[in-house]
Design a protein that fits this description.
CATH superfamily: Farnesyl Diphosphate Synthase
Number of domains: 1
Number of helices: 15
Distance between the termini: 42 Å
Oligomer: single chain
CATH class: Mainly Alpha
Length: 295
């Protein structure tokens, strides 16, 4: 089965579990609105790409490992969607648009957005507990560390509340932590030692954050499905503001090279490197310094 279709089916089952008949109707609608239709599903696809690169086709537990990987991938995406719901709130980015449609608070109100984000966080861990009996403890630990404090998504968002911000620590927590969860979880699902894969996740995460910063200043809301120039409006750190457009693009290239070099030895190492580079480069295709001036 196509990986994308398999992932959507898993997410559909997970959301249906939380948005069952006895769920308050508006909350159920908000949960579905948060997750569907999704974006590129980059994070869960990374989980599955790493898992596939590590997989041994002759392993007697191959099917169990594959189930653990798809379950972990769906949990990662659910938690990512939760972070987007909260990130869009008026107290943070105050964004009315996400993935080309109204953000959750714009569509359902701020109270339901807060509750929907909270419910999705719980759902991510519940779904993992219900489905990933294989290697549940290490996978749960990886996910928890990359979502909470001191250096997970919550910590990354909290850095925006500080008077001074170290952009590297901020972006590593806000973006890199969940990418590290993807690479570590994909490897752990196949029985690999997860921390050897952390460096790869951080490199990919920072590259994606640089790409996101580039698109925020040089992209268009129509193509991105969300407002641009948000970092400037919210006084948030941005690699382009820090390094300039050309400097940010050069840093992006450095990070792709670092990611390639950070891939541990595994059966599918070269194919994984090509996949990471292809997806990463697609994010900055067509961007130029001229478009920042035009904007």
């Amino acid at each position: 089965m196509d990986i994308g279709l398999r992932l959507e089916q898993e997410l559909e089952q997970a959301v249906a579990h939380a948005a069952a008949d006895d769920c308050p109707p508006l909350l159920a609608q908000a949960l579905r609105h948060s997750v569907f239709p999704g974006g590129a599903r980059i994070r869960p696809r990374l989980v599955l790409a790493v898992s596939n690169a590590c997989a041994s086709r002759t392993s007697p537990t191959a099917s169990q490992s594959a189930t653990a990987a798809i379950t972990f991938a769906s949990a990662v995406e659910i938690l990512h969607c939760a972070s987007l719901v909260h990130d869009d709130l008026p107290c943070f980015d105050n964004s009315a648009l996400r993935r080309g449609k109204p953000s959750v608070h714009a569509a359902f109100g701020e109270r339901l957005a807060v509750l929907a984000g909270d419910a999705l966080i719980v759902l991510g861990f519940e779904w993992l507990a219900l489905r990933a009996t294989e290697r549940l403890a290490p996978l749960t630990g990886i996910l928890a560390r990359c979502v909470g404090g001191p250096s997970g998504i919550c910590a990354g968002q909290a850095w925006e509340c500080e008077q001074t911000i170290d952009i590297v620590r901020y972006q590593r927590a806000k973006t890199g932590a969940l990418f590290a969860a993807c690479t570590m979880g994909g490897a752990a699902a196949q029985g690999y030692e997860p921390f050897a894969w952390q460096k790869l996740g951080f490199a990919i995460g920072e590259a994606f954050q640089v790409a996101d910063d580039l698109r925020d200043v040089a992209g268009s809301a129509e193509k991105l499905g969300k407002p641009v120039h948000q970092d400037e409006a919210n006084h948030a750190p941005n690699f382009v503001a820090e390094l300039g457009f050309d400097g940010a693009m050069a840093h992006f290239e450095e990070l792709l090279e670092a990611a390639r070099n950070a891939i541990p030895d595994c059966p599918g190492r070269e194919a994984l490197a090509q996949q990471i580079e292809g997806v990463s480069r697609s994010l900055v295709t067509g961007l130029s310094a001229r478009s920042t001036v035009a904007a």
